Amino acid sequence: MADLVPKEASAGSTAQPVELKLATIVTYSSTAGCTLLFDGETTPTTKKFKRLYSFSVGSGYRVLVAKVSGTYIILGRVY
Fold first, then answer.
1. What Å distances lie between residue 33 and 1, 6, 47, CA to CA?
2. Residue 52 and residue 68: Cα distance in Å, rounded?
3. How far apart are CA 64 and CA 38, in angstroms?
4. Domain 18-77, architecture per CATH
5. Where are the domains of the chain?
6. How many CB atoms sit inside 10 A of residue 51's CB?
7. What local confidence, expressed as pLDDT, does residue 56 receive?
8. Residues contacting 67, CB < 8 A, separation 6+
9. pLDDT band for position 77 (50/70/90)?
10. How many whole angstroms separate alpha carbon 26 and alpha carbon 65?
């Protein structure tokens, strides 16, 4: 988890803060990924997002996602 906390940028550094969001899983497939409904939005995504291997998914789960290389990865369930 310490890697998710943005570190102080040094001179000449191009480090970007990690963008974290909350979402709800709308649909899921073990091979294709999950569609999400991001908090504050009314329409689910058409794009399917991948999850960490250790996380078991289910429709309706509230999840924490991180933006990595222009897409989001589901980190885990929020209880």
1. 23, 27, 9
2. 13
3. 10
4. Beta Barrel (2.40)
5. 18-77
6. 20
7. 85
8. 18, 19, 20, 21
9. very high
10. 14
Give the residue from 41, 42, 48, 45 showing the smallest Cα distance to 74. 48
What six digits make up the tokens of 74? 């589901």
Question: How far apart, in Å, are the Cα atoms of 9 and each of 29, 36, 68?
Answer: 38, 32, 18
Closest CA to 30 of 66, 61, 65, 55: 55
In contact, 46 and 40? CB cutoff 8 Å = no
Nearest 5°: the CA angle 42, 78, 45 is 30
pLDDT of residue 13: 60
Distances (CA, A) of 24 to 10, 16, 38, 64: 36, 25, 6, 9
Length of the chain: 79
